[in-house]
Amino acid sequence: MRHYPAGVTIVTLNSENGPVGFTATSFASLSADPPLISFNIAETSSSRDAMLRADSLVVHFLGQHQKHLAQRFSRDAAERFTDRSLWTTLDTGEPILHGTPIWVRATVYQLLPIGDHTLVVGLVTRVHDNTQDAPAVGPLVYYNGVYHRAEIAD
């Protein structure tokens, strides 16, 4: 599956122990009515327990200029939120990362254990689109173990 290109997202949520976040390349749009999204989280993920207890989350779509965020949220969980200049919180408590082209807030709609992962289905409750205020930024893409910049054609 390393040879299938995927967009890069970061999922963030609030937990009883503070903010939690992780890089996810399994994001998908499932339904327009109701607006449902999904992603997977591995049983071995340090964020899994918090994700399974969460009521809501935010999925950030990373731009090609945000490889540093993808790498930060793929490393040790203790380092992910240490730089307070990178994030703030919504009034609902979830952390949001500054400068992502788009983020969506969702409530947890369903959790489905599948193999060695859990499929998380979210019901979208809010969409924040920063692409209108900035020039077109291509997405960050993950392919064959490496992050790539995707160019946008005019």
TrEMBL record:
<dbReference type="Pfam" id="PF01613">
    <property type="entry name" value="Flavin_Reduct"/>
</dbReference>
<dbReference type="InterPro" id="IPR050268">
    <property type="entry name" value="NADH-dep_flavin_reductase"/>
</dbReference>
<keyword id="KW-0560">Oxidoreductase</keyword>
<feature type="domain" description="Flavin reductase like">
    <location>
        <begin position="1"/>
        <end position="149"/>
    </location>
</feature>
<dbReference type="InterPro" id="IPR002563">
    <property type="entry name" value="Flavin_Rdtase-like_dom"/>
</dbReference>
<protein>
    <submittedName>
        <fullName>Flavin reductase family protein</fullName>
    </submittedName>
</protein>
<comment type="similarity">
    <text>Belongs to the non-flavoprotein flavin reductase family.</text>
</comment>
<dbReference type="InterPro" id="IPR012349">
    <property type="entry name" value="Split_barrel_FMN-bd"/>
</dbReference>
